[in-house]
Amino acid sequence: MTTNILKTLSLIFVTSLICSCSDDDPADTGGLPDAIVNSDPAGSPPRNIIESWAGHNNELFRQYFDNNVAVYYSDDVARPLEWPFEFLSKTTEHANDVYGMFGIENRLYAVFHTSSPAPYVATAFDSQSENRNLFDIGFNGYEMSGTNTDNILLSVSKIVETSSNGISGSAAGDVWGDTFSQIFLYDAYASQQMQADADRIFGQYNTATANFPRENTYWFRDWYYPIYSNYGGGQAFGNFFRIVAQYYPTTGNSFSHDMNMGEFVHFFSGATGEDLLPLATEAFGWNDEWQDQLITARADFPTLNYPFEPVVYITDLTLGATITVSADNGNGPEGAEGSLKLIDNDLFSKFLVGGLDTNNINFWMQQDLTEAAVVNKYNFTSGNDAPERDPKNWELLGSNDGTTWTSLDTRTNEVFTGRNQTRDFEVDIETVYKYYRINITANYGSDAIQISEWRLYYILE
Domain F5/8 type C: where (predicted)? Predict the structure, then answer.
């Protein structure tokens, strides 16, 4: 009796292991319907999938799965090849624990070929991968080499960066470029006690430079590693992803816009609990534009948890204002590109009007504030395309009756170096006005003017 009970318990234990962590034999599944061969528990990844991405159309058979990962090999991959299973599972589990969950299923699909022309990486937000967190790469030989494990981690780092915490995209991508993978690789190796590989990555990236945000920036040496070593390792970066997902503006399940440098430093300070402006100054240099961005970020996101004193108070005077233009879009002010888009607080909509005289643009736009106020700062955001439509020369005027105007600021030969770029302009005045008008006298050669946003502010220092 006792012997039978022990046998039964052993069978249950072995069965549970098979359900949660399983190697697969393609010979058992090829050509047979799931109803015959698939005894997997509910929610298991499919035993075979057909590639529908990157020009591939191969049928792939599952080699292994657990709660973290599903591994598929193409027919040309030599078997047995099992080292990727544990490495991938530990990598994914660590990524979930540190950087936040990604996707509804929260499982990583790893596809391997003997060779592949270029890595393919997709997230749960990509329909081409059937909304799976997935990468498709080629082996460089079959051994557990630094090249093979690095390529795996580079793919996982991109998935983490662009889908963690249920938000699509990388808010910090415009600032850190492709460098986040540097600290991700180091942390992934360190977390698995693969110290020789962690040391190799340290040596590789500690001397690597980038040309952003300035020439000869040592991202790993001067930014990532000091944060990693002084503020809790990978958890500091996990905190960054979490508070960005929590506080940074989104539209649907995507970030509304990219971070600027001031916001980047503000959110990293919130992630570490310490003001990182001194570290950022040493790592990247610092300038007046970034300082203005940091001040604005502290006003826009005042609840981030680190000690800082608000140095200015910013009032957005455009809130509640009405807009008038000398010529509107053909579909009217409420059209998809009508004048109301000038003050809708959406940097990715735009106002567009055409049919102007290229030799004499003579276009104006006017805000009627809710009450008379001092404006000492304003900004424009350029459109998403066609830089020839950008304003080049203009004048800011103020009035209290809409008839008599006083010149407040004149700009010539201004350039927007990027699309959807916001540029700030300061004005040294102390008089209150109810109406503010911009007269645009020249653009860059088009018969059209386009602007994504025009905002007026009062800054109290």
Answer: 307-459
